[in-house]
Amino acid sequence: EENVWKLCSLVQENCPSSELLKCFCVFISNDCRQIPLWHQKASKNAERLVIWDYHVIFVYHDGKNTLVYDLDTELSFPCTLKEYAAACIGDETILRDEYKRLLRVISASEFLHTFASDRSHMLDDRNQWLAPPPEYPPIKCPNTNNNIQEFISMDKTIRHGEVFNLQEFLHKFNIHLCGMK
Fold first, then answer.
1. Cβ–Cβ < 8 Å for 91, 177
2. Residue of 81, 88, 77 whose CA lies nearest to 51
3. Can you point out the beta strands (E) in 99-165?
4. Could you give the CA distance from residue 147 to residue 124 in angstroms, rounded to a whole number?
5. Dihedral sign, CA of 151, 152, 156, 162?
6. Which helix H or strand E contains 25, and what residues bound it?
7. Known EC number(s) (predicted)?
8. Which of 48, 60, 82, 162 can pair with 67 through a Cys bridge, CB separation 3.0 to 4.6 Å?
9. Is there a contact between 69 and 60 (Cβ–Cβ < 8 Å)?
């Protein structure tokens, strides 16, 4: 999430304002907080499968092309959403219900202005870091120091962005994959 926030910030600082309108932050999770993604660098198995509690990607959509920027995938950086959906997300019909993904799509501008994390989700039960935190300060917004759980949640009543199932998400970005449901 912080890498995607930094990428949104980089676009805002270095590109015409019209480019930020083409950028989105996408949180992938579900109510069980168990989402399978394939072709992940962190995987130790042959299928390159990881079960994350949530995952965050950056999506750039210019009306014709849709690109995914994911630092955790083995796919190219960036890759097309069509390639990402086929290789990393896969066909929902093969999954048990508790593994089906939902996707919270937030405009880059909204994400930059509303997201905050004190990094407490990166601590274990003994208050030890699960992984070294970034060296830069935590991301804050005017109203809170920590609202990451609102973004990870797939509760459609939470005000950040919009929550889609996989088919709705692909439709939003004009992606049609044969056999993927």
1. no
2. 88
3. 102-107, 162-165
4. 18
5. positive
6. strand 23-29
7. 3.5.1.122
8. 60
9. yes
Q: Extract the tokens encoding 79.
A: 């890759």
For residues 103 and 27, the answer to whether their CB atoms sit within 8 Å is yes
- Residue given tokens 């049609």 in the structure block: 176
Q: Residue 1: which of 175, 102, 121, 171 has the closest Cα?
A: 121
- Burial (CB < 10 A; 0-12, 13-18, 19+), residue 154, is buried
* 90: DSSP letter: -
| CA 5 – CA 136 distance, rounded (Å) | 13
Name the residue with tokens 């998400």.
169
Q: Do the beta carbons of residue 53 and residue 34 sit within 8 Å?
A: yes
Which amino acid is located at 119 in the chain? Answer: R
Q: C-alpha angle 148/30/69, rounded to 5°?
A: 65
Per-residue pLDDT of the chain (181 residues; tens, 9 = 90+): 999 999 999 999 999 999 999 999 999 999 999 999 999 999 999 889 999 999 999 999 998 999 999 999 999 999 999 999 999 998 888 899 999 999 999 999 999 999 999 998 888 889 887 888 888 888 998 888 899 999 999 999 999 999 999 999 999 998 877 555 4
**C-alpha to C-alpha distance for 71 and 69, rounded to whole angstroms:** 7
